[in-house]
Amino acid sequence: MVWGKDFEEAFQQTTPLGFMNTGTLGEINEKFSKRMRRLNLIQLKVPAGYAVVYNKFYDVEPILSEDSGDFIENWGFFTEDLLQIIKLKIKKGEWYVPEREDTILFDIGWYPDSNINGEYSLQLVDGDWNEIKSISSKDRFVIKEALEEWMEEQQRI
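RESULT FIELD:
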């Protein structure tokens, strides 16, 4: 029970963000599953010496929700946490994740989260999350190209 309603009834009335939902849980899951089968992650050229820690960077366009202003219907692909890649270190022929003070991290997110007016943001940061450089664009392929270039640059350092 969710606030005196069964889960199905509560889900039909609201999503976790409070926007009205017109489908049942089963209909939403079926709709989402069909879309997921057609979606692919963005193909990235990740050089040796990097570890993909988290990846939800899909080759998908945002879809404006019909009944909630600037909210993206497929919001799960347009959040602040889409991709993280960490630069590894090598010691005695073994790759390892460096301590925080030696960390270099590539981070991609969509800002503002779930908003059709948002854009991708790529940041290169150190272990204390101090920005080394950044770029923003609505075009995921601009972000992809920048990420691949930055990884190549960092590999030479």
